[in-house]
């Protein structure tokens, strides 16, 4: 049967499939097909496919699914879950409902090794959660995103697959030869693609386990020679007030005036680190500043905080005011792409 399909390179297939499913656009009654390195993902409405998906919509003859093989088919309702590698993540308050969904996930054709249910909110300065493991044993997995792969443990580090499109948006701005600094690097979802595009990248994180995964992910993606991964408080690293190591060698601790690009993805408290970001900035530097604010004025508080920290030493130009996603009722997760020019 001829249906509209999103055509995407195989290495981007999983995050694209997930994005379409989250938007309710994936036509689950048709088969996903593979040909010549491309996946063809049937969609319910070609015109509703988001422009920022960066994929072609084509018409193609695909087969119909003959057997119920999704959790929704088996449950009779559409459950909410996320996929991270071979882990399925639930967010259910009712233990019986969580168990019912976990059993359906395992019985479906989803390739899954572990099913976990969120048992707490993100907490502490390391931004980790408690989890209830419903199926399987290991909470470690390999997540693939825009051609890169990341080894991580959801019980040890913070990672959101929902931000894949946003990370790709920023990574596409990076040019070879840049010097980029990720102030809250985690397992490397900004660092690795930046380095893959030819940048020299420093990633810092307070979570020692995340930094270990960052080093491993730099090796996995063949960019280790362009990545410096540092465990510590980024304010100490920037000021040079503590001795730090990237796990392999001693590294220079004076990063003042060093960066062409700075990522500040700590939305609830990035404003507390703006003085360090300004200290990092070279003569011409782009800062990607993430914030969570009320929908009535999602960008104003962040822009004011940046100007207060950077002016008059720098001219401040907001290049992009971008809504990343809805965070909570009447609250938005946003990004300001800001150029600082000395």
TrEMBL record:
A Gene Ontology cellular-component term: cytoplasm
InterPro entries registered for this protein in UniProt: MeTrfase_TRM5/TYW2, SAM-dependent_MTases_sf, TRM5-TYW2-like_MTfase, TRM5/TYW2-like_N, Trm5a/b_N
Superkingdom of origin organism: Archaea
Residue stretches making up the SAM-dependent methyltransferase TRM5/TYW2-type domain: 81-342
One Pfam family matching this protein: TRM5-TYW2_MTfase
Entry GO MF terms: tRNA methyltransferase activity
PANTHER family: TRNA (GUANINE(37)-N1)-METHYLTRANSFERASE, TRNA METHYLTRANSFERASE
Stated name of the protein: Class I SAM-dependent methyltransferase family protein
Species name: Halorussus gelatinilyticus
